[in-house]
Write a structure and sequence with these properties.
24% of the residues lie in helices and 31% in strands. By secondary structure, it is α/β, with parallel strands linked by helices. It folds into 2 domains: 153 residues, 3-Layer(aba) Sandwich (Rossmann fold); 181 residues, 3-Layer(aba) Sandwich (Rossmann fold).
């Protein structure tokens, strides 16, 4: 099994990580966990992961792992290791949710690649930690630690949603998004272009794949009330945001946690997506290419696929290999909207 660079740094510092009830947040289910259990066999490990794929990996190893948009437990953890999130805003949210499961003796470690922003953890976490310091550096990664500072105010997830109005084509929809969710504060250029060139979804069963905060799905559900919406994402924070967006606009939808196509089982009249092509800080096409290759089996004959992507991405040949026809509906502002028929 390959071992992440961050896990190699944790392994190097295993002697620092002795604990009775450690909590591992968004760490991969790799050799670090196996070695930790061997080194500290009496430790009562807990896991939290907001990425459904990583959650499944922990489940496969029978790790007691929560998949949710925030961590809940009735015990105090004496050690918490956090994989530095891809969004700096998500760090404050993660620390805030730990208020009820920490005390003055809880030590928190942060591990991340040097270019992830982890170097700014002392500044970002100043309201939640004291004694924050850098402990080690190796494999292009950094390890920091600090002691949790009890918060006077209990954690309330509702206070962390960013809300903004989406105004497009004469329609206003209220969008709600948690930290780290795509389009958290404003409509992105690609999604705006996609919404301006939608097919007719009247009476259609539609899948919004990689739904984020539910922007696309909410607009379709509002514009085509006879449509039936399913929204899928790998992120628990995204799914919670989409649910909040739908609830705020009195819309109905089905919400699916999925790692690529793992939980997509239905047939749809149409699939729409602004597929992500970043994994952490790196441009990563594999997940999107897998989606484009596999989604056809979940679309009815004569059904449609509509996606938007950066124009430099060579997705049209992949789509054409699985669909009867594919066309560029529009190309503007560095993005292309593709429309394909099954």
């Amino acid at each position: 099994m390959s071992v992440a660079n961050t896990s190699q740094l944790l392994l190097k510092n295993l002697s620092l990580l002795k604990a009775t009830k450690p909590l591992f947040i968004n760490l991969p289910a790799d050799a670090f966990i196996d070695e930790y259990k061997r080194e500290y066999p009496h430790a009562q490990l807990s896991f939290f992961n907001s990425h459904y794929g990583e959650y499944l990996a922990h489940q496969a190893k029978q790790h007691p792992c929560q998949f949710s948009h925030y961590y809940q437990a009735n015990e105090i953890h004496d050690l918490i290791i956090i994989a530095f999130p891809k969004s700096k805003a998500e760090l404050g949210y993660t620390l805030a949710m730990l208020n009820e499961v920490t005390d003055q003796n809880t030590i928190i470690y942060f591990v991340g690649e040097k270019n992830s922003g982890v170097k700014s953890v002392e500044k970002l976490a100043k309201n939640y930690l004291h004694g924050c310091q850098k402990d080690d550096a190796a494999r292009h990664c950094l390890l920091f630690s600090g002691c949790y500072k009890a918060q006077a105010k209990p954690f309330d997830v509702d206070e962390w949603f960013v809300q903004y109005p989406l105004d497009i084509k004469g329609k206003t929809i209220q969008i709600y998004a948690l930290p780290g969710v795509f389009s958290q504060e404003r409509l992105d250029v690609g999604t705006k272009l996609l919404l301006e060139y939608l097919p007719d979804y009247t009476g259609k069963k539609v899948l919004d794949f990689g739904c984020g905060a539910g922007v696309i799905g909410a607009y379709i559900a509002s514009s085509y009330p006879s449509s039936t919406l399913a929204l899928a994402d790998v992120s628990a924070l995204a799914l919670a945001s989409a649910k909040q967006t739908f609830a705020a606009n009195q819309l109905k939808g089905k919400f699916i946690a999925t790692d690529s196509m793992s939980n997509i089982t239905d047939l749809f009249d149409a699939v729409i997506s602004n597929p992500p092509f970043h994994q952490g800080l790196k441009t990563h096409y594999q997940a999107t290419e897998r989606f484009l290759s596999e989604i056809a089996k979940h679309i009815k004959v004569k059904g449609s696929l509509t996606i938007v992507a950066n124009s430099f991405l060579k997705y049209q040949p992949i789509i054409a290999s699985k669909f009867i026809s594919v066309e560029q509906a529009v190309k503007a502002n560095g993005f292309t909207v593709y429309h394909a028929i099954r």
